[in-house]
Specification:
single chain, binds iron/sulfur cluster, TIM Barrel, 335 residues, 11 helices, alpha/beta, twelve-stranded mixed sheet
């Protein structure tokens, strides 16, 4: 691997070692902040990467320094060949991880073990079955909760991704943290972010500061421990003294972490996004299908990466809906 000319290092010196691959735009939930209310036009299957193409593109990134691959969606496990994709990618020298809504995870725990997946992020925005139904538009809370317990029992490192929204679940912050008392999980509170079709506005967002206010109201300050964040970490990590688990805040709106960004994203239709918020994309799949090298396309995309939030480097720009609409909806990016 030739680090000096590494095609995954951008003009700010950030080395991109983490590739997030969206396997599908389909999902078995309908979360209001992710999937536009009136749905999305699903791409024909022929427009989506097949498992060989996923493997070939992933291998190219690994050859240039990617050490971690996370599978996302939509919901990655609704893909009929999900087991095959896990098997293929597990042959690469990378840390393989997955983000799932856990509705069908019970069918995959043995495959996860077999293919060396250790960390599983589960999207869960409420511990209240009725609220879960309200936000996901599906009545699967008990199934998801049971599957989270199953993952813990199997010894997986479980992180719960919780998107906070004012007037919906900010009153559950303390309960989510109390959940980490007896369960070795990390609850990650995510600031609500603007994407096409999710009706975002700043007033709906629960900020890092808001979360810490709830924490300090719910727990005596001397029991709230600030943990060391890992390099390239997107979250600020804490734990309550004596609790098995921990909690964290992902604050890309109020405290962005772009300086240490090491992430690139591949959409289900094989487009490379150099940033979650960037509307610009590079079509790797067509290049691959044309029998051409994808490396120059990857290099160019990384060289064009902007310093912060795809150019939305101020809150004013982030608040501009025209910029959100240029980007995709969250369900077709995969977070
Ligand atoms: S907003 Fe873009 S640059 Fe910033 S951390 Fe996220 S992906 Fe990286």
């Amino acid at each position: 691997m030739n680090r000096t000319k590494n095609i995954l290092t951008d003009t700010f010196g950030r080395e991109h070692t983490y590739l997030r691959i969206s396997l599908t735009e389909r999902c078995n939930l309908r979360c209001t902040y992710c999937r536009p209310a009136d749905g999305i036009p699903l791409l024909p299957k022929s427009h989506l990467m097949n498992f060989e193409e996923i493997y070939t593109i992933a291998k190219t990134f690994v050859n240039h320094g990617v050490t971690k691959i996370r599978l996302t969606g939509g919901e990655p496990l609704v893909r009929k060949d999900a087991h095959l994709i896990l098997e293929k990618l597990a042959t690469l020298p990378v840390e393989l991880a997955i983000t799932t809504n856990a509705v069908t995870v019970d069918r995959f725990v043995d495959s996860f073990k077999k293919y060396g997946i250790e960390t599983i992020n589960v999207s869960l925005d409420s511990l209240d079955p009725e609220k879960f139904k309200q936000i996901t538009r599906r009545d699967y809370f008990r199934k998801v909760y049971a599957n989270i317990m199953l993952l813990i029992d199997y010894g997986f490192k479980v992180k719960l991704n919780t998107v906070l929204m004012k007037g919906f679940n900010e009153d559950e912050i303390v309960n989510f943290i109390k959940f980490t008392k007896g369960h070795p999980v990390t609850v990650r509170f995510i600031e609500f972010m603007p994407f096409d079709g999710n009706k975002w506005n700043l007033e709906k967002m629960v900020s890092y500061k808001d979360v810490m206010t709830s924490v300090n109201n719910g727990f005596s300050e001397n029991r709230v421990i600030r943990l060391q964040d890992a390099p390239n970490d997107t979250s600020k990590n804490y734990k309550i003294e004596g609790y098995l688990g921990s909690f964290a805040i992902i604050s890309s709106v109020t405290n962005p972490f772009c300086d240490t960004c090491n992430r690139l994203r591949l959409t289900a239709d094989g487009h490379l996004k150099n940033c979650l918020f960037s509307a610009a994309e590079s079509d790797l799949l067509t290049t691959l299908r044309d029998g051409k090298s994808i490396e120059p396309v990857i290099r160019k995309a990384v060289q064009l990466k902007l310093k912060m939030r795809g150019g939305m480097n101020t809150l004013e720009k982030l608040k501009n809906p025209e910029l959100h609409e240029k980007n995709r909806s969250m369900i077709t990016i995969g977070g």
